Amino acid sequence: MGWLDYFRKWASKYDREVEAYDYDPEKLLKPFVPLIRKRKRGLDVGCGTGKSLEALKTVCDEVVGVEPVEKMALQAEAKGFRVFRMKGEELGRLVEDGVPGRFDLVAFFASIDYMNVELVVAGVEKVLEPGPAGHMPKKEAGLVFLTVEPENEEKVVRAFGERGFRVVKRDTRKAYEGQTYVCLLMNKG
Description:
Largest sheet: 7 strands, mixed
Order of helices and strands: HHHHEHEHEHEHEHEE
Mean pLDDT: 86
Number of helices: 9
Number of domains: 1
Strand order of the largest sheet: 3-2-1-4-5-7-6
Number of strands: 7
Shape: globular
Strand content: 25-35%
CATH class: Alpha Beta
Helix content: 25-40%
Distance between the termini: 39 Å
């Protein structure tokens, strides 16, 4: 069974199960808030049922999701979020489909582990607001926030690094019992 099929089957019970695990995307994001500051537009790639969109809403004026699983996208929309149906590897379609403006924060809450990272990075470059280069995030520069499983960190950092992104901050956070994520904040420059 592929990951899309897995999430299709899990969609109806996702919120209940992650609540039982005490999974809270806001806890993963919290240590990065001083660097992220307040952002205008956030994009959550693999937004699922909207739980991570709720976390992004704490740092973004507007949030939009991308989700390929229809049942999960519908649940996120029922919570009041706008969701585009596509895989993370298809991010560039947002620009091609005429979605106005770019995003100054693109986030992946435990979703990039299921994607072709090289294709994802190419799409991120199309939708992320460009900004001045520099190690510290500038208010007008686009940022990427990711939570990845530890065994995928090197692959993800390398793929983004090959396109000029660098890690601004790294932290390891326990997401729930038995699951630890590496949390990364990256910018280009």
